[in-house]
């Protein structure tokens, strides 16, 4: 199942005292679900960039604790450094990584700003997508005058968006902060088969949004100026891209050094293809590329989808296969090996043992299921059955997309395969979730009950765990019903040579639906919420009848194709 992740990248105004940096960064890991990824101090700038990720529910709390600790340990009245800054925590942006929208990040930023202003008494500004005015979208505008110019807090034009609009002893110590929401920034280098930094620079100017200064008659001729005497610029081909060309002595090649400031506007694969085209115009070839730092998985999966589409091949494949395609298509292993486990945020933060059942081979899973332990049981097996069933349906879609003579239908089947693979991923995540829900009930029954208060807490914990143990198999059943539609479609229009695979897939999914329903029903007996229980029983009855009907339709189609 896709993780819901937000990245937060606060910059604190301390880059020299390691004990202060460590103390500020250490509060992050104390918040549930949040993981510290990187701490990058700079002595000359006297500034440290801290990077952490977490779910949207708790990442704001981690940011608050960091800002609070920085304000306790950093006195801006004594700060000196080369980088522009205005507060102990100078900036604090939130970035959607996976499963989270920009709107959610804006909400996190604004709630944090309100809390920082009210509880910590620190003033500041909302910027980028979280800004309350167009003028303050630009961070440079918010930070104008830096710390030394913060008397502007008491002026109409400099009034903060949150916190006290005063320049007193407290605000002089903490300074101000900018809290925002923005898209992921990607530092991206593209390798060229030339050693000429001048030619690389020319390609970068072709591409970057700011382009180059316009000249009357080509290179070396006079600069064209506007009515105010300012140079006229000729825009480059890509929006939200900054770039220069340089020579890398370590590798003996020239590169385009690009900053992709909004990967929704210009994703990595678009920048790569445009660089290839512009380089070819100048008689130069792109040999590969290099992504700097950590990146979200979607950067690679979207690139893979793009290149698969250009090849008219199905996009309905696993993320791991898409990563391999992206690495090869972008030439990310041109200069050095590219290890996704160390570069992709979702892989870096994944904890070993998070999916003990799913990580087992089939033999080990079957042996554990057959043991004396009550879990894993029917719920996990039901989720597993539906996972395998929809995997078969997705296979039929992929085979249909590549069937000789059906080339014009590749996109149709690719879309079905992509739906199937998405359902497969979600159902697979519920294999372990069902067993975890059972264990939660057992833990609730094991709570102490010596006092009336403990009895009440235990009773509520049992009820909450029971409801959760019903909701998990209901998720399995609902997703399985969607999976059954994929199997039905592939039986109807898919490659007839794979009709039995569609049939087997439908039967496995039927087992998943009915198995999940039985698991939900068995827990209803212990639930006191009669309204919830009644709704679940009604939904179960409807799904039970529908899955039998759809399975019968699929098997009838199988018989027709087989000539029975």
Detailed description of the structure:
- Strands 1, 2, 3, 4, 5, 6 and 7 form a 7-stranded mixed β-sheet that branches. Strands 11-12-8-13 form a 4-stranded antiparallel β-sheet.
- It has 17 helices and 13 strands.
- Helix content is 50%, strand content 13%.
- It is an alpha+beta fold and 564 residues long.
- The chain has 3 domains: 5-181, Formiminotransferase-cyclodeaminase, Chain B, domain 1; 186-348, Formiminotransferase, C-terminal subdomain (Alpha-Beta Plaits, 2-Layer Sandwich), CATH 3.30.70.670; 362-562, Four Helix Bundle (Hemerythrin (Met), subunit A) (Up-down Bundle).
- Helix 6 packs across helix 7, helix 13 (378-401) packs parallel to helix 15 and helix 15 packs parallel to helix 17 (530-562).
- The chain starts with a strand and ends with a helix.
- The model has no long low-confidence stretch (mean pLDDT 93).
- The protein has helices spanning 18-26, 59-73, 102-120, 139-142, 169-174, 197-207, 268-281, 297-310, 319-330, 340-343, 345-348, 362-369, 378-401, 410-445, 452-493, 499-524, 530-562, and strands at residues 5-8, 11-12, 35-42, 47-54, 89-98, 124-128, 177-181, 186-192, 212-213, 233-234, 241-248, 253-260, 286-292.
- The radius of gyration is 29 Å and the shape is globular.
């Amino acid at each position: 199942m896709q993780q819901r992740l937000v990245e937060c990248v606060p910059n604190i105004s301390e880059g020299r005292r390691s004990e202060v940096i460590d103390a500020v960064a250490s509060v992050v890991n104390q918040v549930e679900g949040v993981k510290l990824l990187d701490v990058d101090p700079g002595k000359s700038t006297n500034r440290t960039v801290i990077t952490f990720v977490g779910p949207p529910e708790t990442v704001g709390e981690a940011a608050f604790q960091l800002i609070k600790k920085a304000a306790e340990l950093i006195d801006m009245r004594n700060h000196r450094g080369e980088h522009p800054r205005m507060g102990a925590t100078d900036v604090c942006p939130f970035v959607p990584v996976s499963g989270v929208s920009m709107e959610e990040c804006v909400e996190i930023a604004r709630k944090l700003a309100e809390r920082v202003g009210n509880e910590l008494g620190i003033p500041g500004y909302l910027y980028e997508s979280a800004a309350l005015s167009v003028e303050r979208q630009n961070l440079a505008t918010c930070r104008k005058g830096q710390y030394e110019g913060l008397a502007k807090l008491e002026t109409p034009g400099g009034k903060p968006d949150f916190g006290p609009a005063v320049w007193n002893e407290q605000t002089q110590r903490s300074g101000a902060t900018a809290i925002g929401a923005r898209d992921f920034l990607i530092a991206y280098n593209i390798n060229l088969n030339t050693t000429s930094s001048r030619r690389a620079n020319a390609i970068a100017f072709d591409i970057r949004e700011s382009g180059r200064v316009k000249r009357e008659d080509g290179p070396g001729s006079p600069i064209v100026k506007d009515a105010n005497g300012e140079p006229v610029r000729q825009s480059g081909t890509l929006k939200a891209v900054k770039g220069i060309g340089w020579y890398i002595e370590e590798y003996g090649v020239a590169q385009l050094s690009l900053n992709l400031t909004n990967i929704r506007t210009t994703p990595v694969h678009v920048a790569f293809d445009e660089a290839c085209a512009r380089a070819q115009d100048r008689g130069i070839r792109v040999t590969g590329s290099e992504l700097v730092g950590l990146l979200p998985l979607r950067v690679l999966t979207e690139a893979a989808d793009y290149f698969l589409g250009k090849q008219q091949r199905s996009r309905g494949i696993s993320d791991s296969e898409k990563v391999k395609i992206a690495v090869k298509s972008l030439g990310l292993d041109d200069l050095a090996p590219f290890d996704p486990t160390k570069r992709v945020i979702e892989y870096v933060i994944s904890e070993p043992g998070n999916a003990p059942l799913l990580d087992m081979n089939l033999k080990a899973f079957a042996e554990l299921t057959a043991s004396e332990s009550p879990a894993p049981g029917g719920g996990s097996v039901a989720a597993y059955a539906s996972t395998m069933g929809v995997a078969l349906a997705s296979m039929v879609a992929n085979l249909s997309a590549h069937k000789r003579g059906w080339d014009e239908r590749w996109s149709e089947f690719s879309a079905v395969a992509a739906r199937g693979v998405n359902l497969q991923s979600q159902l697979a995540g519920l294999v372990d979730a069902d067993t975890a829900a059972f264990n939660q009930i057992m833990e609730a029954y094991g709570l102490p009950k010596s006092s009336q208060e403990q009895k009440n807490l235990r009773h509520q914990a049992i009820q909450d765990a029971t409801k959760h143990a019903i909701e998990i198999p209901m998720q399995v059943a609902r997703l399985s019903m969607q999976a059954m539609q994929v199997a039905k479609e592939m039986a109807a229009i898919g490659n007839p040579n794979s009709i039995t695979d569609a049939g087997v897939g439908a039967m496995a999914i039927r087992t998943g639906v009915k198995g999940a329903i039985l698991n939900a029903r068995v827990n209803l007996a212990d639930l006191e919420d009669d309204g919830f229980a009644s709704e679940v029983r009604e939904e179960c009855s409807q799904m039970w009848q529908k899955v039998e009907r759809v399975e019968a339709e699929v098997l009838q189609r199988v018989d027709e194709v087989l000539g029975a």
